[in-house]
């Protein structure tokens, strides 16, 4: 079976039982609105206040305009009855009302434009603020959370909120405006004929109920499809990105990726279409019911006018008021359910903001030692990654002495990188403790602890930024101090790479932005390595930092590393024994367990697992 054939099975299996959100949940979502308003108010008080004032003004206008229309109509009828209709232009009262109507129309247009502008400005500001809050919150959270797919779904839904919330903002404000207009129009209607109000309510309720039902279903659909939408985004990225283009072409993945995308995208489309069609059908039916209500009311008004109970002006006023009220009530009721639906989405945003980091500093943290004296002690440390049952490392006990260079050796998956993640508190041990100068790492301030350690991971990030910034990543506060950046580049031997770049330290790296230059793997590695030299760390950790360097470059880099880190502790992870043997001691890991610990010579003399790995590699070179 080809991979493309696999895809349908995988996707069908995933979504067998979509859970539904209940009506109660829908209503509960309204409790998010005050919080939402507070956020908007805090975004910009002046804009929010002006917006509210303009909307208040705008909400009185429809009634005023209908009333003016009635007055004009009544004057015309009086003129007509008196046989003076040919002198209509000599009636100052008529002109006054026409001028008022014109003034109101101009005002209505100005207010509408002002409101649209304020909505857009406020929306953009709100969008910026929420995106910033989202980034800040994401930075507070820790690695275990990022590796959890449920967390990712939440993040994804929260991310979508930032752009769509702008719609909610104008929806709610329009709603408030609509309600006030409705009260005005309703008061007018009550004054002339209270029965019309009852008729109005009966004609719009079915449409409201159907809107509420369909909005709820729409939310359920989009909630249940979050993982697939995330997958769609991923497939879109893999299918059309500079980073994947090479492998997509070489392995001929394009058809596989597009067919998988197509399958998911169309499944989502069909699910959406089904719902949208049903919604349109029922919506159409119930709206027709509303129209019937309107014409019954219209007939009633005409009847009263013919009987002479109402004037022709009142007829136009009432028919106009009733129709506007019907449209408005229907809109307000259906917007209520849209607001409820969007407020449910809002829950995702607030939920995301409320996720607490699992790894944090204690309230009263211990000061980080200015100079490490005893070093780091691993006491029976074991660790399982979240949502796994396998021990990634088990019962590890050793001391990394102050000033010592320790190498970690072991086959792929042996647990080397995991130990570094534990040392830097990206994770906390599942069992056991890690001590720094006699105290648990958890007692120290997290930021200060991480500043103490300079780490270059094997999957370091190639930031699509300029060279200076790429180096300054090691100590971002010093990004505007060129001498420090140049010095770090000299220490890692990146200066030779930079010399050849057209824009030197200002050279944009990567292909994503204009004038960017792509570097070779080894060149990138030297740039990344200078990050370790940027900070005055007491412990430097290099996780396979030279895997992409040629033999000569690797030799030079390590000679320098040894000289430059004299008196500092260092942990090196490498599969090259030429590098490993430079360390004071070597810890050998096998399937998460610590199997040997000693100097290169001691371990060779032991003739154990290390000697076996060493000889295996040496044989390859012979
Ligand atoms: N984020 C993770 N979630 C779950 N399991 C993980 C995660 N990272 C690593 N593991 C598992 O933990 C074990 C140890 O992985 P680790 O990355 O520490 O190995 P390593 O010795 O650094 O390997 P390599 O030489 O390939 O870099 C492996 O079995 C791996 O599958």
TrEMBL record:
Annotated keywords: ATP-binding, Cell membrane, Membrane, Nucleotide-binding, Transmembrane, Transmembrane helix, Transport
Membrane topology annotation: Multi-pass membrane protein
Region (Disordered): 1-20
Chief location: membrane
SMART domains recorded: AAA
Residue ranges of domain ABC transporter in the record: 376-616
ABC transmembrane type-1 domain: residues covered: 52-341
Family matches, as Gene3D superfamilies: ABC transporter type 1, transmembrane domain, P-loop containing nucleotide triphosphate hydrolases
Gene Ontology cellular component list: plasma membrane
Source organism, top-level taxon: Bacteria
Signal sequence coordinates: none
Location in or out of the cell: Cell membrane
GO MF annotation: an example: ATP hydrolysis activity
Membrane spanning stretches: 64-82, 166-189, 195-214, 280-301
Protein name, as recorded: ABC transporter permease and ATP-binding protein
Lineage of source species: Bacteria, Pseudomonadati, Bacteroidota, Cytophagia, Cytophagales
């Amino acid at each position: 079976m080809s991979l493309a054939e696999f895809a349908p099975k995988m996707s069908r299996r995933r979504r067998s039982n979509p859970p539904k959100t209940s009506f109660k949940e829908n209503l509960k979502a309204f409790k998010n609105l005050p919080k939402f308003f507070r956020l908007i108010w805090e975004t910009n008080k002046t804009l929010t206040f002006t917006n509210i004032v303009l909307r208040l003004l705008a909400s009185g206008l429809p009634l005023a305009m209908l009333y003016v229309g009635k007055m004009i109509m009544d004057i015309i009828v009086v003129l007509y009855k008196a046989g003076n209709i040919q002198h209509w232009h000599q009636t100052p009262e008529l002109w006054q009302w026409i001028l008022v109507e014109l003034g109101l129309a101009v005002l209505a247009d100005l207010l509408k434009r002002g409101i649209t502008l304020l909505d857009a400005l406020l929306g953009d500001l709100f969008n910026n603020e929420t995106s910033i809050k989202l980034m800040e919150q994401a930075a507070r959270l820790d690695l275990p959370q990022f590796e959890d797919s449920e967390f990712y779904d939440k993040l994804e839904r929260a991310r979508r909120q930032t752009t769509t919330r702008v719609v909610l903002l104008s929806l709610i404000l329009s709603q408030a405006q609509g309600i006030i207009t409705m009260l005005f129009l309703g008061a007018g209607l009550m004054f002339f004929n209270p029965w019309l109000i009852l008729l109005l309510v009966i004609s719009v309720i079915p449409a409201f109920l159907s809107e509420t039902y369909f909005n709820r279903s729409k939310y359920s659909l989009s909630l249940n499809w979050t993982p697939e939408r995330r997958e769609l985004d991923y497939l879109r990225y893999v299918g059309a990105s500079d980073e994947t283009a090479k492998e997509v072409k070489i392995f001929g993945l394009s058809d596989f990726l597009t067919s998988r995308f197509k399958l998911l995208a169309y499944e989502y489309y069909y699910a959406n279409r089904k719902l949208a069609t049903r919604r349109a059908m029922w919506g159409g039916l119930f709206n027709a019911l509303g129209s019937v209500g309107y014409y019954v009311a219209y007939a009633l008004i005409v009847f009263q006018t013919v009987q002479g109970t109402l004037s022709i002006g009142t007829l136009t006023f009432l028919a106009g008021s009733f129709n506007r009220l019907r449209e408005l009530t229907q809109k307000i009721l259906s917007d209520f359910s849209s607001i409820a639906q969007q407020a449910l989405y809002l829950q995702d945003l607030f939920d995301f903001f409320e996720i607490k980091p699992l790894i944090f500093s204690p309230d009263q943290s211990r000061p980080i030692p200015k100079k490490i004296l005893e070093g780091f002690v691993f006491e029976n440390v074991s660790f399982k990654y979240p949502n796994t049952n396998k021990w990634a490392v088990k019962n590890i006990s050793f001391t990394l002495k102050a000033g010592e260079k320790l190498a970690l050796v072991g086959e792929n998956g042996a647990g080397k990188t995991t130990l570094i993640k534990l040392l830097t508190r990206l994770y906390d041990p599942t069992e056991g403790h890690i001590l720094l100068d006699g105290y648990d790492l958890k007692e120290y301030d997290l930021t200060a602890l991480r500043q103490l350690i300079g780490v270059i991971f094997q999957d370091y990030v190639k930031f699509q930024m300029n060279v200076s910034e790429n180096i300054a990543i090691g100590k971002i506060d010093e990004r505007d101090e060129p001498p420090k950046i140049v010095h770090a580049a000299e220490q890692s031997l990146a200066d030779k790479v930079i010399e050849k770049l057209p824009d030197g330290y200002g050279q944009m790296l990567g292909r994503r932005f204009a004038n960017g230059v792509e570097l070779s793997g080894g060149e990138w590695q030297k740039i990344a390595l200078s990050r370790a030299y940027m900070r005055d760390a007491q412990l430097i950790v290099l996780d396979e930092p030279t895997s992409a360097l040629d033999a000569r470059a690797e030799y030079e880099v390590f000679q320098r590393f040894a000289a430059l880190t004299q008196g500092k502790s260092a942990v090196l992870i490498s599969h090259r024994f030429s590098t490993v043997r430079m360390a004071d001691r070597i810890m050998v890991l096998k399937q998460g367990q610590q199997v040997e610990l000693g100097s290169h010579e001691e371990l060779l003399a032991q003739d154990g697992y290390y000697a076996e790995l060493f000889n295996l590699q040496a044989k390859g070179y012979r």
